[in-house]
Write a structure and sequence with these properties.
Structural class of chain A: mainly alpha
Strand order of the largest sheet of chain A: 1-2
CATH superfamily of chain A: Farnesyl Diphosphate Synthase
Number of helices of chain A: 16
Number of domains of chain A: 1
Oligomer: homodimer
Distance between the termini of chain A: 6 Å
Number of strands of chain A: 2
Chain lengths: 334, 334
């Protein structure tokens, strides 16, 4: 633990606070339905918050082209709400799949309302996201987000087929997190620029920023599942280990492991035969191979890639805020 | 059972056979993914067939404007594949929700691959449907289908919240089937016309046809769940009763039932306490109130409404085929 001031996303959230207030209003207005269970369940999840990274990125994308001003272009607000709906749709479906009980420190929707409701309200949010995008009247944006949505599910399916296989190649893991996380970060910030008329050069640069930021973010998220002080993350600690989810530290530790260590990984994360003390042993093995540190170091490389894509941005205040945001994703490692 | 020749959808399928061959090719091509489980699972469901009612309707919509010709406009083929993908996405999610083992006479995807895969591949097909629609470059069509998709899930959620409530008003049932079935029939045929440039009058007339056809189709489907000779339907007989699903015959029989009969419905379909012989007793009660016949009669009224919307179509061959299709939905009642 260092005593240096940690980077935060506060500069970005402060910069876009007025815009986010408007986005939050669109989110609340547009999760409505005549079928009362839909806003109840959606509100439980969405009102719980989270960092709203994807709408923030979408707003930042618009700002990168327009220059700072409170964004009055309703298309940006609709699109920002849409990316948050897509994200929340995938969270609802993930919690069904993972049978998770906790999300953002609260009971999950599936724990409270059941799997059926979570599947259907996820579908509703996804459909509603597309309705909002249609209102932007920009078919290019619809193309970006429909393609991103297909790749998200491909990432999730690939993650499922990798489960329990600690001998998976690293590239498979990178493909999974590209799909399940990085693509939507990339689509959010680049579509925000595009919908207000940015040129291809800026759109592409922002896409690269979002992609690298998403990779860094997910690698850190996965690595920290093996660090003990997780209360602040508001998710179940050690979940990935219990679920047989294959992440970067496990792949490194398996690659470098002895026969005996590999047998441990195959029994636990491979076959799901988990005994008292196995999670602690897993952490010890990961640390002995510096597997968590190596994952965090990989994340830092992605964060630096993200920052190098920001040259295309002319506004120094925004550039600085997005730089901080990239450092923030890996600052949780300190 | 009558000895008259039954109406069929064969005239429609014959009329559009060449086009459907092309649509089937698009479906096969576009369910592909680098993640092998996706085409495997999608192919299991989609290759099993079904009547392909929704792509047929989409093609018929285009034909209503263009006049008969093998449809070479690729936008119509993409859109026809998209509506089939949306339909199959909802089927995958329904089977997860209903925990069904059989669909179209075969093991369901969730029974073979598990719920997680079915949820995710459903999401993939939905996202891919929107990618196909983006390729039509017609944002109006995207508006129709995204709105239809939201209403489908609203119908499904409402169906879930109605489950186990035989005292539900008839209007709630009508709302449910409007969403879960009729809206997509309507969107399929009207968007098929729209994407080739039909005017609002024809688009609206076809929308009305599809809506009424869908209502007739679903009412019959639900009613026949209480008729014994169901082998040909390829679904589990008596499923709705076991699942506590509230359909038109049950609402009628409950409304007209004695105290004792209502207590029977509340115990069985209401509380799910189902004993040997209860399904047979349910059928006997429904027949004693002519509840199935009344539902089938309501379906015939919808079929007639559908047919009356066909005045807007100038081509007699198509009009006749769509008339037959409307009679076909209720002919299963004979």
């Amino acid at each position: 633990m260092t005593t240096e001031k940690r980077p935060t996303i506060e500069a970005l959230t402060a910069l876009l606070a007025d815009d986010m207030t408007q986005v939050n209003q669109v989110i609340l207005d547009r999760m409505g339905s005549d079928v009362p269970m839909i806003p109840q369940l959606a509100n439980h999840l969405i009102a719980a918050g989270g960092k709203r990274m994807r709408p923030l990125l979408c707003l930042a994308g618009a700002y990168a082209h327009l220059g700072k001003q409170t964004i009055t272009d309703s298309r940006v607000l609709l699109l920002s709400a849409a990316v948050e709906f897509i994200h929340n749709a995938t969270l609802l479906h993930d919690d069904v799949i993972d049978e998770s009980d906790k999300r953002r420190g609260r009971d999950t929707a599936n724990a409270l309302w059941g799997n059926e409701a979570s599947v259907l309200v996820g579908d509703f949010l996804f459909a509603r996201a597309f309705e909002l995008m249609v209102e932007t009247d920009d078919i290019g944006v619809l193309g970006m987000l429909s393609s991103a949505s297909a790749r998200i599910t491909e990432g999730e399916v690939k993650q499922m087929t990798m489960a329990g296989k600690p001998d998976s190649p690293l590239q498979d893991y990178l493909d999974v997190i590209t799909g399940k996380t990085a693509i939507l970060f990339a689509a959010a910030i680049s579509s925000g620029a595009r919908v207000v008329g940015a040129d291809a050069k800026l759109v592409d640069a922002l896409h690269n920023y979002g992609l690298a930021l998403g990779m860094a973010f997910q690698i850190v998220d996965d690595a920290l599942d093996y660090r003990s002080d997780l209360a602040e993350m508001g998710k179940n600690s050690g979940d990935d280990f219990m679920d047989g989810k294959i992440t970067m530290p496990v792949i490194y530790a398996f690659e470098d492991g002895t026969e005996e260590e590999r047998a441990f990984w195959m029994r636990t994360i491979g076959e799901g035969v988990i005994e008292e003390g196995d999670f602690e042993k897993a952490v010890t093995l990961l640390e002995s191979h510096k597997a968590i540190d190596r994952a965090l170091s990989s994340a830092r490389t992605y964060a630096e890639d993200a920052i190098s894509s920001l040259e295309a941005i002319s506004d120094d205040v925004l550039k600085s805020a997005l730089t901080d945001a990239a450092y923030y994703t890996v600052a949780r490692t300190l």
